[in-house]
Amino acid sequence: MIAGKLRRDPAWMATAIVAICLMAIFLLWPLASMLGKSFINPDGRWGLHGYVRFFSEPSYREVFFNTLILGAAVTAGSLLIGGGLALVVARCKFPFAGMLMILPLITMVIPDVVVAASWVLVLGKQGLVNGWLAPLGIELPSLYSWWGLVFVMTLNNYVYAFVAVLVGLKSMDRSLEEAALSLGRPLSRVLLGVTMPLLLPSVFAGALIVFTHVIGSFGVPAILGARTPVLAVKAYNEFVSEMGGNPQMQTTMASLLVYLGAGLLLLQKFVVERRQFQMESGRTPAAIPLGGAKAMAAAGSVLLIVALSLLPAVVVFVTAFTPSVGPVLQYGGFTLNHFHYALVRAPEPLYNSLFLSTIATATGVVFSIASAYLIVKRRSLITHVLDVLVTLPLTIAGTVLGIALINSFSNGPLALTGTWVIMALAYFLRRVPSGVRSATGPLHNLKDSIEEASMSLGVGTLGSFVRVVLPVIGPSVGAAAVLMWVTTLSELSATIVLYFGGMNTMPIEIFQQVDSGRLALACAYSVLLLITIFTPLALARRIFRLKVGTIE
User: How far is Cα 264 from Cα 260, in angstroms, rounded to an integer?
Assistant: First the structure.
């Protein structure tokens, strides 16, 4: 009944049209314009000159293949580490297993630029480890290489595979494995013949998330990948060098990133739809207690992974209080000068980040609630279009989105370039998918009859929405709002394209300080950024009991 009322409810019809218009103007149009410009030749005619040049010149081809190889290597490593940990945690009982549940909270919200800076301090040529090994005549291979990129980005992305596989394992019906074991099949054949086919949708989902994160990442490749250029960084460099000139090559590279993301999303959707299984819930396979050497090995692995995940934050915190003379750090000393500079002499990046994050989150939450309600409870062709539009940003790298917005809103009646509005708009578009998905889950569980009962008692549609729907989705939306706010604070890839003088954000300031060799000052800004990120997370979990960033 409720599903058919959209056409008869002018308020919700208007809301749906406004939402689609906003996404069409500020996302679809910039994206389509950017893709279109990649087919405009230097002489103004339509053609494939940009793509022919890209795949003809060795320097561009190298960037493309570097991106694919890096994405594949990090995805494979993330699935190996994250999937292995998920299997051990889901199926075994041992000391410290519960510590892995905090990994999503730790890993997902520490900005990429902070992670890269911390590993430079640890494994860089002048880093702590090389300093300890120098008296022995040993020097580690350069971190600014393939192994450095794969190592750092795997540690920064394996948690997505861990979460996806763990959720799949927890939703599995144990009777299927029990039936296979009762037929006399060995455990290894059960895992390969029963467990793995059931897990494939979760594995592919985790692989897609990791791969799209890696190919669209800017912070880590920009700091560590000078010798290994990738598409996201190359597109930004091309954008900077071609300002005011022919933008075909930067739009071509940005378009290739969009094609890669969209193609992978379609591939994952095709694979998952061909492998759908229905299982009874509430019959998760029982965990097997481990003892002796196996328990020690499992606990040691967990402690190692948690330590490596926490290491960036620990190193950054120590270095922020370390005296420095230029790029030279004097460990063992103590100073507050870096914080004095960041809080008193140059606090603008902190103020800008808080301001933009607040604006983007406030508008994102309102938009997400309305869109989720329309998609779930007012289903129609128009809301299906809205569903596709709010999912689209998942396939777009931040650098690509920034380039698209700059190309579309640099002049004309909507000249937003050079204002804070375009930065807040990019943050809004980047985080809306997570907000909508967080609200749709509980809405699917809300029976239409409850809202219909409220309306039958004389309460209007808006009143029923406020009194019935909002209380149900409130906790999930609150958790999504906190995550939207803290992840916006750490946004670098879109900001690097859109920021302008006077609107440096914290990630931009950290990136510039690292690039200038002032690592101690970069760490001071990083500590302030981490405090602004983890404080609302802690408050949300303790005061409002919101389950943010962990698997429980």
Answer: 6
Query: Taking a C-beta distance cutoff of 8 angstroms, is the pair 364, 431 a contact?
Result: yes
Residue 220 CA to its chain's centroid (Å): 14
pLDDT band at 139 (very low <50, low <70, confident <90, very high): confident
Whether 242 shows a pLDDT value over 80: the answer reads no
Strands, DSSP E only, in 103-165?
A: none
pLDDT confidence of residue 6: 40
The candidate with the shortest Cα–Cα distance to 439, out of 411, 417, 469, is 469
Mean pLDDT (whole number) for 416-444: 86
Structural contact between residues 505 and 356, judged by C-beta atoms closer than 8 angstroms: yes
Q: Could you tell me if 398 and 494 are in contact, meaning their C-beta atoms sit under 8 angstroms apart?
A: yes
CA 263/CA 68 separation, integer angstroms? 13
Q: Give DSSP secondary structure letters for 451-501.
A: HHHHHHTT--HHHHIIIIIHHHHHHHHHHHHHHHHHHHHT--TTHHHH--T
Within 10 Å of residue 178's Cβ, how many Cβ atoms? 15
Question: Rg of the chain's alpha carbons, rounded to an integer?
Answer: 25
pLDDT at res. 3 = 42
| pLDDT at residue 29, as a whole number | 94
Cross-strand pairs, 534 = none
Quickly list DSSP for 354-420: HHHHHHHHHHHHHHHHHHHHHHHHS-SHHHHHHHHHHHGGGGS-HHHHHHHHHHHSSSSTT--TTSH
Residue with tokens 């190692």: 304
For residue 214, what are the CA distances in angstroms to 149, 156, 169, 231, 336?
A: 10, 10, 25, 11, 35
- Burial-class residue 167 by CB neighbours within 10 Å (0-12, 13-18, 19+): middle
For the chain, what is the mean pLDDT? 81
- CA–centroid distance for 412 within its chain: 32
Task: Sort strands 324-325 and 328-329 into parallel, antiparallel or unpaired.
Answer: antiparallel
Helix orientation angle between 58-91 and 49-56, rounded to the nearest 10 degrees: 80
Helix orientation angle between 112-123 and 292-320, rounded to the nearest 10 degrees: 100
Q: Are 301 and 95 in contact (CB under 8 A)?
A: no
Instruction: Enumerate residues 6+ apart whose C-beta is below 8 A from 289.
Output: 92, 93, 94
Q: From 81, 491, 460, 530, select the one nearest 308 (Cα to Cα).
A: 81
Query: For residues 305 and 281, what is the distance between their CA atoms, to the nearest angstrom?
Result: 30
**Burial of 146 per CB tally in 10 Å (0-12, 13-18, 19+):** middle
What secondary structure does DSSP assign to 299-351, as a single string?
HHHHHHHHHHHHHHHHHHHHHHTS-EETTEE-BTB---HHHHIIIIIS-HHHH
